[in-house]
């Protein structure tokens, strides 16, 4: 059983929901990024989504676009990111999901990517622009299924397609809360609830909701509906507004603890 | 650590005879190893819906008749094919023919596609159009058909392109479109497309995204090629009518590659040489160019797999060209297949040579070409040199150059010298 499954089982026993935190790897630089992640883990983060920055992030809003650019300008690349991942792994057992656009993985090489990811202690991947239709190349290039493939379901996904997607997924299902890019406003809990119910009838996998969840109150609301909550832009916004603060890692850690509290029943 | 998919992919072993045996793309939009659909899940259902709608409507008689009517009476097709006598005499080699897409309504080939997509949007019940634009020609062509069909229209354009193609911004605004300035990344076509895709993710239910090139996720590359192939179909008939036979060579500029694909496609199984001309910008050796097929590697950008300009970590590079319409680090997936199978050859022309050709055709033929098309003409001048007059070359004059006057004349100073 991999760390993602174990985490959800433990949380279930404690009647908690998973706090999934997205951080762009290497933002604002690799060292600070590591310090931020370690503070988040210390504050009770349940799952780390480690974002591999891409020059053309078409699913992301301006906050994550800027964070990707900061990381790339400081030289973040897959080699330094795998090192970062391995260092986090030395300190914590938190499940790590590598969040990427397809191109950086594809250019690195599907098979080398797999081996490096496993070696640095990653547990899964979420490839935002790789639908099941195009995944054959990836799964054929991977020797086994130690890395979970987390799949996205959107509010626009029709029912038959949901069935197809969940059958190709492992780890958990990432339910996109609304039509829009990451970090956009307006949360419709009724839409989320309907989609969670639909998904629950199709799969045993835990369901985590993301895109546009940014306040403690929203975390509390969504915790009542789903198995986990993904926060990304809210953390990145905090990084962006406190770039020169030597206390930045601690600030993110404190915010993580706040969000985590809201996931307790 | 770098993988090299080129060495062990059997599909890369295909040669140009493959086009006689099968048609591309497949059901999922693959042109051999290229193409496909690489987008976020929110957009997948919209692309599937678009694919089905396109397959359905484009086969119906009423759609075909309506489109034909519009192309004839509104766009002004067929556009002339014209023997460029003085230009041919000047090079003293092959005979040069120009396909005059600059004479289509709005001044470029772009409208062949936008009118098709807007008609499809209407049939699908969509009321709003969005588009990205580089040189502004696709933006103008989209704004035009939006006005014609009474649809709302938003055009995404890089802030750098807004500066260098100012007249087209004014045209779009006159046509009732909202021009949205894109300040992210390189502030050119690539980023305009990123932003249009982001906007579409949030508005996918009532908005039709009119992609301007044979790029993007399936079904855009096949749909845009099919709307543009009228260029090649007319050229074939006109050459046979005027010369009694097929041409020997076709030349077109390639940014995303829609005017080239439109010209090439009807000749794909004919004994005609196909040449795509990319922008070499300041020169290939400077690294500041847009020669994606010539010097790029396989990657995924804007929803499809093709050649891209990128670094060793898969981060997309900045392209450069004097011509905004060619200033793009990606290229349509069908061109990638044409290159690998050697069915087409891709060459490049730098800013300087494009400017020389621009000036020459102004003076020799009384035609002010788009800076994009000037790249194709520049290569044609080279290719024609060592050939005889009964070697016939058709150059796609994909657009007119009024939009480029701003970059050619800075104040009183002309960069033409």
Summarize the structure.
The complex is a heterodimer of chains A (265) and B (417). By secondary structure, chain A is an alpha/beta fold.
Pick out its properties.
heterodimer; A: 265 residues; alpha/beta; nine-stranded parallel sheet; globular; B: 417 residues; six-stranded mixed sheet; four-stranded parallel sheet
Span between termini of chain B = 49 Å
User: Could you estimate the helical fraction of the residues of chain B in percent?
Assistant: 40-55%
Main β-sheet of chain B, in a few words?
6 strands, mixed
Instruction: Pick out the low-confidence regions of chain B.
Output: 1-8
What is the makeup of the main sheet of chain A?
A: 9 strands, parallel
Question: How many individual helices of chain B?
Answer: 18
Report the structural category of chain B: alpha/beta
Estimated radius of gyration of chain A: 17 Å
How much is the radius of gyration of chain B in Å? 20 Å
Assembly classification? heterodimer
Number of strands of chain B: 16
Beta-strand share of residues of chain B: 15-25%
Structural class of chain A: alpha/beta
Relative strand content of chain A: 5-15%
Strand order of the largest sheet of chain A: 5-4-3-2-1-9-8-7-6
Distance from first to last alpha carbon of chain A: 26 Å
pLDDT average of chain B, as an integer? 94
Q: Using DSSP, what is the number of strands of chain A?
A: 9
